[in-house]
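Intended use. Records like the one below are meant for learning the mapping from a protein sequence to its folded structure. Do not use them to infer anything beyond what is encoded.
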Amino acid sequence: MHRVLSVAVVLLLVVPTCLYAQCEPGFTVTKTADVEVSIVGECVEYTIVVENTGTCELTLAGVDDSLMGDLTAHFWSVLMVGATEARTFSHIVQPEDPDPLINTVTFTYTDPSGDTQMDMAAAVADLIHPSFTVSVHCLTPEVPPGEDAEFQVIIVNTGDVDLVINPDDPGLPDSFTLPTGDVFVHVTSVPCVDDQACYTIGVLATLPEEYGLPNQYAAGASDCCPCGVNPAEENTWGRVKSLFRSEAGD
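Structure written out for the chain above:
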């Protein structure tokens, strides 16, 4: 009688282990970004999807994201067989973010037998850095009377992406594309007003429509040229000065 009871106890202990052995844990993780290209200050939305592809439920141990840190609290504590869970998170691109911006998420589960199951996924966004400079230089050290001053306008694309340039000078094209690294040079004339001639330009640069980013960048520059004195006026002032000197000498 005692022997039968002992065998029964052993059977009760073995049965759960056999059931666990029949369970095949498995899951997949995917991560996607809503854009392929972004820029500092813009929002990138990441969608994370985890699916239980095995034959047993999984208990969540942790979710770690390379950009957003610990996301464990945002996901179900238990992922049932065949279940799929999706969550979306936002990240504002920071100046210190690497380029390309690689965002990796790692899931850790434990199966009914206590073993650890891990999987990870990554999404990549290319970061662009638009920038440009505008400068104006007087080309005429002293403008002869009756003539206009000449100014050189230089626009340089110093970024890593083409820009659409929109200057406010009617003498320049209304809009044109300036490829990365290229330089646009233009010479313009301005009449003298009193003793100087000045030129000011404002430039608005935008990203090409293909990027789908509404960013705008503004810059400007100015310079002045001194205008010469009429020779007749110079002679008149010279005689006056000489007269004063002569009287002072007496």
